[in-house]
Amino acid sequence: MRNATFAENPAAPPKGSAAVPQSVAAAATSIVLRPRQRLALGGEEEIVYVVQSGVLLLESQPRLAVRQIVDLYYPGDIVRSRSLPPLPALALVAGGRAEVARLSGRKLQAMCAADSAVMSWADAALAGQYARRLLHVATIGALTGEERLASLLYELVMRTGERGMDKSWTFDLPLSRTDMANYLSLNADTLSRMMSRLKQAGVLATTGRGRGFTPELEALGTMSPLAEALRTSHAPPAG
Amino acid sequence: MRNATFAENPAAPPKGSAAVPQSVAAAATSIVLRPRQRLALGGEEEIVYVVQSGVLLLESQPRLAVRQIVDLYYPGDIVRSRSLPPLPALALVAGGRAEVARLSGRKLQAMCAADSAVMSWADAALAGQYARRLLHVATIGALTGEERLASLLYELVMRTGERGMDKSWTFDLPLSRTDMANYLSLNADTLSRMMSRLKQAGVLATTGRGRGFTPELEALGTMSPLAEALRTSHAPPAG
DNA sequence: CGTTTCGTTGATAGTACTCAAGTGGTGTGG
DNA sequence: CCACACCACTTGAGTACTATCAACGAAACG
Predict the structure, then answer these.
(1) B211-214 β-sheet, strand order
(2) pLDDT digits (tens, 9 = 90+) for B154-202
(3) Cβ contacts (< 8 Å) between B148 and chain A: which residues?
(4) Complete DSSP assignment for B151-176
(5) pTM above 0.85, yes or no
(6) How is A49-109 classified by DSSP, letter by letter?
(7) Which of A201, B170, B197, B228 has the fewest CB atoms within 10 Å around its CB?
(8) Assign residue A185 a region: left if phi > 0, alpha if psi is -120 to 50, beta otherwise?
């Protein structure tokens, strides 16, 4: 039903963010998620999730028949129920197979106060996520449909891509077409048309089961005015 | 040239966020900004601004002739250069007259480590700002043009509104039409048309010098599917 | 192997954008 | 004090892009 190849290698270190501190992982409850599984958000006490593998979607439904994915969480990202607005039908959903660590906001706060390494890790993670949200606003606010799609594909290459022998890259597509459309604020039909156009142009190919392939990454990069920013915001700290 | 009534009462406590701790204000450099004045962002060391009065716009220009306002900062908000993505032509600009406190990221970090009250203040401020960004994504991603405009107006009432004797509210419009359009990801012409329609419908009136008036706030509220979320995210913590 | 879901594609309609001209307010200088 | 220039804003007509609706094809699941 859903693409689930993204989480096939949970042991791989998360790209684009510093590794989760051992102490945090030890203090948390590990949860394995199946595609489309939902995570609890509300409650009196603050809940914190740390993504360990896979992709999580934060979606809302401002009106019936209009769904918007407002945030996308990758391994190493932190989801705090406190920093979520009371949007209609807000839900945290696993994109494919995923694994998260759950702990209470109180516990995380205590660990931050006790260990400055934990604090700087959490601070860096949240600062990076904030920057990515601004990038998302710029993407859906100022770019054309094709540019938005190219930006998302480029982002996914940065996150999950594996370089081939030449300039080609193979990468995961952990979101369904509908999810991609809702993330980019496009119609699913329109998005499908755009992907077909990219395939026809030879910029993109899909090799079944939610995997993508691009013969030359920079062809995608030139299609997105924000490629440079995406490279910086989604690549590992080292490069 | 610009509307500058917003900052007329700098002594008023900021709505929508906890007051800035005295120690932070004391350690920072206060800067008075004129409309359209720009603030430095780059540099080796992290720069932190805390808004004290007025409104700040974070704008980018993904392409020539396409400008997008990706963030909007109100009194009490924190701007960290670290949590900003490397967007093209990124700039932090004062909407009207404004006042900010500037300090280094290192200094703020030290104060957070030393004083848990400072830390919980900064944490709460940034969490609230993250939530508002998600709200912004939902607004420009899932709502129609009129709903977006109604949402922004509702937000401005929450932030700067003064209630009249009846159900009417008077509020500031600290953004120019162009800025509002760029924030809502609309064309300035289209936005102007929409405001005219609202005026004709009797939902809105502008009383010169960048001030707005609505005879009944809930008329605006019913036009925005996110009014409830805006109320929670922009009203003072007490209510 | 049937059923269900997801993805693709075509024809049509709607919304917002572009370009252009016109209006109104504000500040400056004669 | 008035004339002018400038800027923000408004409004109209035509266009382009994306959404909608419907049908079809393909892949996953039991």
Answers:
(1) B162-163, B169-172, B211-214, B205-206
(2) 999 999 999 999 999 999 999 999 999 999 999 999 999 999 999 999 9
(3) none
(4) HHHHHHHHHH-EE-SSS-EEEE--S-
(5) yes
(6) EEEEES-EEEEEEEETTEEEEEEEE-TT-EEEGGGS---TT-EEEESSSEEEEEEEHHHHH
(7) A201
(8) left
